[in-house]
Design a protein that fits this description.
Blueprint (H helix, E strand, L loop, with lengths): L6 E4 L2 H15 L11 H8 L9 E9 L5 E10 H7 L3 E9 L3 H16 L5 E4 L1 E2 L5 E2 L1 E4 L16 H7 L3 E12 L5 H14 L1 E5 L5 H15 L11 H11 L8 E6 L2 E10 L2 H4 L10 H9 L4 E9 L8 H15 L4 E8 L3 H9 L3 E12 L8
Parallel strand pairs: 4-5, 13-14
Antiparallel strand pairs: 1-2, 2-3, 3-4, 5-15, 6-7, 8-15, 9-14, 9-15, 10-11, 11-12, 12-13
Helix pairs in contact: 6-11
């Protein structure tokens, strides 16, 4: 049988951008676990005016079959902020979606690899949409439940498409599930002892000083994650954009700061799992999406811990454990009894142990893949 022609072309114009955004809504139409993102949020990320694009070059590609039907998509990403930080010749692919056809996936990966190699990059890593500061990783374990807010989702056979093209594991990212209605007395007593011994206090976000609080989070985030594998500091513009997006849904009691002997030491940010509402909105706020969102969002009983970080010099004080316990306590007060901590690098043993001490169960794994696309030193 003659193979179908797969044509991969760069996105050009509004119709292509619309097709790029719309593809997953068709591919996942019958998947009960997929949660459709708001189309406007995806469009905002892809908009060249988004602050990520100030330090990156991005090309979007669409794959079409012989009949002109869109069957796949991918973004090739040259992130100058990553290159400046790591000097490792890594470019990225993201926003990958494909029909269950290895020819489609191979054509997309080959096109993205050629684009990155032409710009002097030697390794293609992904999926990352656009970087480790946004959605990243391919789901490879934990396909029996929907993703939580701001986490990716894909069918199990995506791994076959990626690995079939020659990608190999770069790093696994672990998601932990929490389920409890009260803290064990033992953990509460340990928390009290740590707080007293090391003079640790935990406070909530002050919405009246939101701008100043964002500045504190920015400093802590970029400092606490500085040495992490693949970390890329967020620019002021990126941080401000993210804060603007999150401000309407932030719950002050789920954003905690830790101080050790009066010095700012760390923070934790959790969000109610907005995917509970988003799954009923079909990617639209209008005409009725907002109403579904309000209805289903009233009694969200789950949350996601997006970030929990402590400055290096305070990492053995118990500040991380107290931040985790604080989220538990404040979550219980809001009627939140389920949650996810995600994601944590597989080899971040200090953080993993802290989460497991308070009952976290590693239930999902996301994988970042690498593939050499041009030998070091080879001319393009």
């Amino acid at each position: 049988m003659e193979a179908r022609l797969i044509d991969v072309t760069p996105e050009r114009g509004r119709a292509d951008r619309r097709a790029f955004i719309e593809l997953p809504y068709r591919l996942y139409r019958d998947d009960p676990l997929w949660v459709p993102p708001l189309r406007r949020d995806v469009a905002h990320m892809l908009d060249p005016h988004h602050p990520f694009h100030r330090h990156a070059e991005v090309e979007l590609f669409l794959a079409r079959d012989g009949g002109g039907r869109v069957v796949g998509r991918i973004a090739a990403i040259k992130n100058d902020a990553h290159t400046a930080q790591h000097h490792d010749g890594v470019g990225f692919f993201g926003f990958f979606e494909s029909e269950r056809n290895p020819e489609v996936a191979a054509a997309l990966f080959a096109t993205a690899a050629a684009w990155l190699a032409a710009r002097g990059l030697t390794v293609m890593r992904g999926p990352a949409s656009f970087s480790v500061n946004e959605e990243c990783g391919l789901l490879v374990k934990g396909f029996d439940s929907s993703p939580v807010v701001m986490m990716p989702y894909n069918p199990p056979w995506y791994a076959d498409l990626v690995e079939g093209y020659g990608f190999t594991k770069a790093k696994d990212l672990i998601a932990y599930r929490h389920e409890a209605t009260e803290l064990p007395d033992r953990l509460a007593r340990i928390g009290d002892r740590l707080a007293a011994r090391n003079q640790i206090t935990i406070r909530t976000l002050d919405m009246k000083q939101f701008t100043a609080e964002v500045d504190r989070v920015r400093m802590l985030y970029n400092a606490a994650w500085e040495a992490n594998w693949g970390n890329i500091p967020m620019t002021d513009a990126e941080f401000d954009d993210l804060a603007k997006q999150l401000k309407p849904v932030v719950r002050p009691e789920l954003v905690l700061f830790a101080e050790v002997r009066g010095e700012l030491a760390g923070f934790a940010l959790a969000l109610p799992d907005l995917n509970v509402a988003l799954r009923h909105m079909n990617g639209h706020l209008l005409p009725f999406g907002w109403a579904f969102g309000l209805w289903y969002g009233r009694n969200i009983k789950a949350a996601r811990v997006l970030t929990l970080g402590v400055l290096p010099k305070f990492r053995l004080t118990g500040a991380a454990e107290l931040l985790t316990l604080g989220l538990y306590k404040n979550g219980f007060a809001r009627g939140i009894y389920e949650g996810e901590s995600s994601w944590i690098l597989e080899d971040n043993l200090l953080m993993r142990q802290a989460i497991e001490k308070v009952g976290g169960d590693p239930y999902k794994t996301y994988r970042l893949y690498d593939k050499t696309i041009r030998p070091q030193g080879q001319l393009t």
